[in-house]
Amino acid sequence: MKRIPPAIWADAVFLLIAIADAAINLDPDDPGGNLSMALACAALIVRRRWSFVVFLLTLPAALFSAGTAAPLIALYTFASLTRRRPMLVGCVIAFAVCNALPWPPPPFLASEGFETVVTLAYAAAFAVAPALLGQFVQARRDLSAQLAEISQAQEHQRMLTTQTVLAKERAQLAREMHDVVSHQVSLIAVRAGALQVRTRDEETKEAATTIRQLAVNTLDELRHMVTVLRASGSLQTELTPQPTLGELRQLIANSGIETALNADLPDDVSKPVQRAIYRTVQEALTNVRKHAPGASATVDIRAEDGDIRLTVTNSAPTRPTLSLPGAGHGLLGLRERAELLGGEISSGPTAADGFQVRLRLPYQ
Fold it and tell me: What is the pTM assigned to this prediction?
């Protein structure tokens, strides 16, 4: 059911009040007064659109009859909409005079002078009340609009402040990535290239080639990320393309780990699930390189009971483990990503001294 606006209800109530007042003051012996009250009630229908004209049309009711509700409503409406104070004062005086002095006016006798002044004073006070109420409503409406503008300005200022802070942080992060991380990755690529040229051992040369290729790819990604960060949070900034399952074989090939991939998935796996699988395999193989040198790995992906299940298992390391820096946030980030998609991830050692990462995601 369509909701009726409050303004329509207010118009209906005011019109009923004016009609009730006219009915009470109806005089069968005064057709002119009755006609003026009918005109005043009809004019209230368009009081919001032509408030001054409506007030003028209701004045005869105050002059020729005892019905004052319609002129008072019209005066209140005009006061709530106009910003011409002299015209409003003139309307108040006009209503007071029409309401206080009967028509046709009787001859003013000296004995009636004091009563006439008192009547005019009461009529003026009677007219001032709706005018002041209308001005109060107008001031309240203006104040509400100003408060809304102030609130919008403050929200805009907060947004600008937040964007400024983010832009500074992004610029600082971009400088750190460019000056520190990119430099160190460049050194890795150079040293790997030198090793690739100088060594005669095929296994070492292959490892050096893989390291150099990974370093070059990392530099390309770092340069793109620095460009994104230096864009200062623009909404039109182009983000790095997100990986899909189609790139999984390339990831495994570049990992430098002997890995067997067993994948049996439908073609309509959603993009978020594909990204979660890719990042999980990426993190698991990274951990194999760091914590299980010389180990082989198996990546198994399948759909089962409405879920996507991923298992990455690596064998025991065949070489001594090197102490490499790590913040320990990799698996934590994967767990948060899985929970956002309604899944879960677990990990732990295997009976063969290896390690296994298990991911379950609902099929989406």
Answer: 0.43
